[in-house]
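Below is how a single chain appears once it has passed through the pipeline. First comes the sequence as given, then the structure the pipeline wrote out for it. We keep one example in the README because the format questions we get most often are answered faster by looking than by reading.
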Amino acid sequence: MAEAHQAVAFQFTVTREGIDLQLSHQALTEIYLSGVRSWKKRIIGLKNSVITGVYPASPSSWLFVVIAILATMYTRSDPSMGLIAKIQEHLPVSQSMSTQCQTLVSAVLFSTMLWLLLIFTMRMCLKKLLSYHRWMFEKHGKMSNTTKVWALVRIFSGRKPLLYSYQGSLPNLPVPAIKDTVKRHLESVRPLMDDRQYEHMTKLAAEFESSLGNRLQWYLKLKALWSTNYVSDWWEEYVYLRGRGPIMVNSNYFGMVGKAFHSQKFPNRIPGTVIPLCSAQCERLFNTTRIPGEETDTVQHWQDSDYIAVYHRGRYFRLRVYQAGRLLSPREIEFQIQRILDDPSPPSKGEAKLGALTAGDRIPWAKARVKYFSSGVNKRSLDCIEKASFFVSLDDDEDGVTADDPASLDSYAKSLLHGKCYDRWFDKSFTIIYFKNGKMGINAEHSWADAPVVSHLWQHALSTDCFQLGYNAEGHCKGEVDSSLPRPQKLNWEIPPECEEQISQSLAVAQALAGDVDLHVFSFQDFGKGKVKKCRVSPDAFIQMALQLAYYRDQRRFCLTYEASMTRLFREGRTETVRSCSNESSAFIRALEGGEAAHVCRRLFHEAAEKHQHLYRLAMTGAGIDRHLFCLYVMSRYLGVESPFLKEVQSEPWRLSTSQSPMHVEMFDLVNHPEYVSCGGGFGPVADDGYGVSYSVLGENILSFNIACKLSCTDTSAHAFGAQIRKALRDLLQLLIPNQTEFKTEEKRPEAKKDL
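Resulting structure:
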């Protein structure tokens, strides 16, 4: 095959006259260009390391300090107070240099040390300033003197930071006090328990706080001193990698699209501020795969990859995206994709549904990987998939939202979440899915990073495709095609019957799981954050109160509610939990459902919303309770001690799990371009008898919701809960703005059915 010849740099045969070498000029050229590309990346990486290493200063500032010191010395002053002379005395090569040269070298060395000292001081000051978070709790227009001093962070933040510029200046995640965590936990479970249950929990908490808790806390503080982040490594391992069930539906999440979104490059600051965010998760975006293990999985990341893996009609291909040391143009990538679509070759025996191994239970996949994919052609092909930059699935079905079929949105979301259970590679950091009709979406593995990181990548790529690259009049990507491009390489497999049997078993497990998912997606266009802000309420708090009200109406009870909040204000921070069901929110809902006066309900609503915002700020600033409780529990298991309190905490079910999908539309006009509206992304149900809700705030006038539950649970229904959410949103706005005109339903709003 042509691909095989191009993969070999040279051939040789042994003759009577000696060794006859048949060199391939094209192959050697490719090797040379690949090496050049690799060294260019190393040089760029070294350059970026230097720039980020001295940030918030710049390498050019070193020259400024040197010139300033030399200029001062020229005026016969000694800015070093004798240090330059001391350095000159101890120069190891002073005998071979003139006095003037010795003075110059000593001055440069002193300038360099002074420059490094200034950098260290600036970084320490920046780290100290970034450790202060009380500014987040102060009301608008009432800034304390301490916060005014903290505003100096702008001075030390530097200009034009790179992605990793702030990493060395970010504070470490603090370990909350035991008494604070226990107190807040008891407060969070009060609306969920009767008096007897609460008294029991209070007794367990008091025993824990006065005995075992202090011992576990000591070990956690030791870990926090020793490690960069006392939570993240355990969170990745025990919450994600040690799970032995399928990661499809249970862990992986999906993202939908409109035509595109407009966003900036990967931000390392909170939008609209100079407050930096940790960028550590961005490192494993590409060239990353989750590797199955019998006891625990691992995340494997490679430094570089020049190709992507593509799946189409049961076949796997390697598509190189570099040619002659350059990245292929969009038109060339389209050309190569078309070659895959036109390829008539059938799948190898057992290849078509091979991806089901990544969709089923982890232990069978781990055993199959060792037994059938550790050597030979299977290992080479599996390595090709796992080391690819990312995975692309070319679906042979049509999907996406259509104007004449409202249910198509649900079908589209389900296809992105699990597909056919064998046409995605769920272990890859992310899989991009293209449907036959041109619609697309993304499925991402969760252990290596959280949704905001994937969201930034996804929306930036879509934005670039639409607004910068574009298409010609025939609908093709712009650009020319190099006719010498080698064809995409079809991967070969030798799947034995025993492995085929395991593939079938994994597929059956995955199909049963996928078939149990009830998923409903809708766009709410009656109003958005613009009108909510006029009520002087945080949009997120408003939506969370609506979810609490909807759940109460749906189930006639309150439940432990999970809302994800980021902790990327700290180094290697990931997420924390906001417990949205509070005493204040339950008091408001009881009053509203009990027919209390409107002014009483409004007062209770604002108290509940303010409490929610307070809890959210605590979570963002390292004072949340759930990651602390999680680490205390892990530590107790390491020490081999039982804690009735921690055991009770870990057994509490999250029947309502929520998350806001980040949408970065600050620089795009959604009002005049509604065709770019998307319904964000979503995830599978967390509890067997609960709901998973992902929501997005799109511009000023649109909210979107992705609701998931299990069909096997007779007490839940995604569509019924969606109807309750719509009603709750309208009822809350009607409460806050009594003169609000009657809402129009989605059916009367044709723009709500725009082709996304």
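The chain has 24 helices and 20 strands.

See the next section for the split statistics.
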